[in-house]
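I am still getting used to backbone structure tokens and would like to learn alongside you. Please make up or recall a protein chain and show it to me in full. Would you write everything just below, so we can both look at the same thing?
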Amino acid sequence: MIRVVLCLAFSLLLSACAAAPDSNHVEIAPDKFVSLPAPSEFESTVSVNQLITAKWSDSTQVLPVHLEITESDVVLVGFSSWGTRLLTLNYDGQTLETDNLTGLGAVLPDGKQVLMNLMLTLWPATSWQPHLSPIGWQLVDDATSRTLLDENGETVAKIQYDEPKVAGGVPADIQFEQVRQHYQIQIQTLE
């Protein structure tokens, strides 16, 4: 009997592991996953403080963050308005580690989604194309905006920059609108 239970438990564990997407894969739409570009594809190193304002339905949340991008890592640390660290995201190009303040895991947004949205706004469109093309999606850029299109050419997200986008740079003000999920994110880079 114990042998049967152990075999069943082991089988369930193996099937759960096989069904889980790779740790650098993010669900970009229901049942559609993409891998994230490598930190090095940002083409620069950056260390900035930002204020992220998220709006959906009748809610608005503000999160001060510190963003650090190096050749090997992307680190995003979010703080409460009184300075307490709420979350830390660390992405090394292969895995994404998330550390949330105890008790806030269910309240905070999914770390992979936060990182994907941030990378969609900042990484060059050329670095995203190999990750989006397998599902037929694309990023279309012009000097001060970017549009994420699905396999049917329909807009998924619109991104507006307050200044022309420069590779390896972080614009002072970014407006991100997720058209399908009906939320907006404003990212202000603080001096």
User: Anything to note?
Assistant: Helices lie at 2-19, 111-122, 125-132. Residues 1-22 have pLDDT under 50 and may be disordered. The longest helix spans residues 2-19.
